[in-house]
Amino acid sequence: FFKDSWHLNSPDMIPKGEIYVELNRNHVPFVPTCLASGDVQCWPKQEMQMKKYVEFPWTCRQGLSITSHTHYHLILDIVGERLTNLTSSRELVQAIHDVLVTHQQAYTLGFLHRDISTGNITI
User: CA distances (Å), 41 to each of 11, 17, 28, 54, 108, in order?
Assistant: First the structure.
């Protein structure tokens, strides 16, 4: 699984790849292994450019606080089906159970997934 995204440039944010490594190190069940992750390596660094232009007179809303983002890749060792491809209620109940067990253990380690949705669950 390859995920291409933009992460916040904030000292409080832990990169997703490091979270997967920590969850695996603590044997949290049903968590895929992170094969590779990190900021996209190029020059110049791939960062969102909106912050440069927020004070220009032609912008719609001046004075907005814009948080910088950097281009990020994440590669996980999962191959599976989307949650929407389940074939029985039993499979659905088992999948929801597994998600709740994983989420509870991750939360105990200090991690909270804020987007538990069908697009973020693979069976």
Answer: 19, 15, 30, 26, 33
Q: How far apart are the first and last CA of the chain?
A: 13
Counts of helices then strands in the chain (DSSP H, E) = 3, 3
Whether 102 and 19 have beta carbons less than 8 Å apart is answered as no
6: number of Cβ within 10 Å: 14
At residue 25, φ and ψ (nearest 5 deg) are -60, -30
The distance from CA 5 to its chain's CA centroid, rounded to whole angstroms, is: 8
Q: Tell me which amino acid residue 62 is.
A: Q
CA distance 38 to 16: 9
pLDDT in tens, 18-52: 999 999 999 999 999 999 999 888 777 777 777 67
| CA gap 96, 79 in Å, rounded | 18
Q: Which helix (H) or strand (E) holds 104?
A: helix 89-108
The reported pTM is: 0.78
